[in-house]
Amino acid sequence: MKLLRITAAFVLVAGASTILYLAWHHRQIYSENCSGGDHFNIAGIGKIRSKELNESSGLSHWKEDLFFTHNDDTDSCLYLINAKGKLIRKWFVPFKNRDWEDVCQDDKGRVFIGDFGNNFNASKNLRIYIFDPVKNKTEGMIRFRYADQVAFPPVKPGSMNFDCEAMVYQKDSLYLFTKNKKERSTNVYTIPAKPGDFTVVKKQEIPLLGMVTAASLRPDGKELALLTYGKLYFFTLNNGLQSIPNPDFCFAWSKFRQSESLSYWGRDSLLAGNEQRDLYLITRK
Question: Radius of gyration over alpha carbons of the chain, in Å?
């Protein structure tokens, strides 16, 4: 009985210590129930066959069944594919592909290409390129740095939170979601969607159990989807992206494998791609 009392006291002290630690470090206490797969049907819809596209690192719906995509760190081309993976067209973008990770569009049809992959958190050359595919014309470059990064790379392994593979556009701003290595969360940064040189301040930290590899905003702006390796998270947005709540639900699916691209396709469907060049249609039931 004495041993049980000692064990119970230890568990109580450990739990209290954890709560105090989270409060001291401004961490949100988050427990995850990732069983939301019943809300969706998931089906393989196609595969990218073109040898020019060795992976779909980002996806953004353009019109009908057409999507913009790009390679990770090879050629400097923006590609147009259909939902089954057929290559329709490509444009040369006159900027180096150091580590292109995601793509999105504004309400004028301009495409933003995120050259902000930063696996080792050592880069001081983070950029977003602006390209108009209709005019076949570049419209500038966004250079940026993280205000809270003071070492390249950070000294502490647990501070490797300055890699990014996910970006969305809303109301003249770009929102970046970091791929945190240890925290099992994502940090949100905002950048004006115009050419310039910016220092970006962390807007908020969202708790989730995974490293974010892609993001997409529903066309009506009322739902955000974040993709990690093997999981998809959904957030209801009552105030746009100004304040993002904890996830409403998520679901895990092994066939996502190393998935790194995601785009809404209308209100109730999304297209996701992985490094194996498979494309999956995710449809709300």
Answer: 20
Q: Which amino acid is it at 237? A: L
Q: How far apart are CA 257 and CA 232, in angstroms?
A: 12
Q: In 201-258, where do the E strands start and end?
A: 202-207, 212-217, 223-228, 231-236, 249-252
Report cis status (omega within 30 of 0) of the bond before 219: no
Question: What is the value of pTM for the model shown?
Answer: 0.89
pLDDT of residue 38: 84
CB crowding 248-270: b at 16 or more within 10 Å, else e: ebbbbbeebeebbbbbbbeeebb
State the Cα–Cα distance between residues 107 and 174, nearest whole angstrom. Answer: 12
Q: Is the dihedral of CA 157, 162, 164, 169 positive or negative?
A: positive
> Taking the domains of the chain in order of start, what are their residue ranges?
1-30, 31-284
Taking the chain (285 residues) in consecutive chunks of 10 residues, what is each chunk's mean pLDDT? 45 42 46 81 95 94 98 96 98 97 97 97 97 97 97 89 97 97 90 98 94 97 95 94 93 81 97 93 94
Alpha carbon distance 67, 60 (integer Å): 5
| Among 279, 245, 246, CA closest to 82 | 279
The closest alpha carbon to 210, from 174, 169, 168, 252, belongs to: 252
pLDDT of residue 29: 55
CATH topology of domain 31-284: Neuraminidase (2.120.10)
Determine the residue type at 249: F
Residues forming beta bridges with residue 217, ordered by sequence position: 224
In what helix (H) or strand (E) does residue 18 lie, and over which residues does it extend? helix 2-24
Residue 211 burial (CB < 10 Å; 0-12/13-18/19+)? buried
Tokens 């961490």 map to which residue? 27
